[in-house]
Amino acid sequence: MNYFKRIVMLLLLGSCTQKNSDKSFEIKGKIDGLGNGKVYVLSPAQTSAITDTLATGNVTEYTFKLKGKVEFPRLAKISFSGTKKKPRPVPIVLENT
What is this structure's pTM? Predict the structure, then answer.
């Protein structure tokens, strides 16, 4: 029985220590009438009142694409600047896949 417990513990430990270094997130979108400008993924910092910028991109011909990595799932929002339309920030949950 002791042998069985050791094997289970090793399997659990191995699954908890896998690195997500090759995983990332990607967000693609299109908003009609948005125009050209910038798009940002913003998230509250874990240790202060400052906002972290997790990804930035350009809005071109109403489309945008954002790529980045997070250490753990995070609440964030997609914000736009310099565009014709000023859409409200879009709340999202980010996780690497």
Answer: 0.70
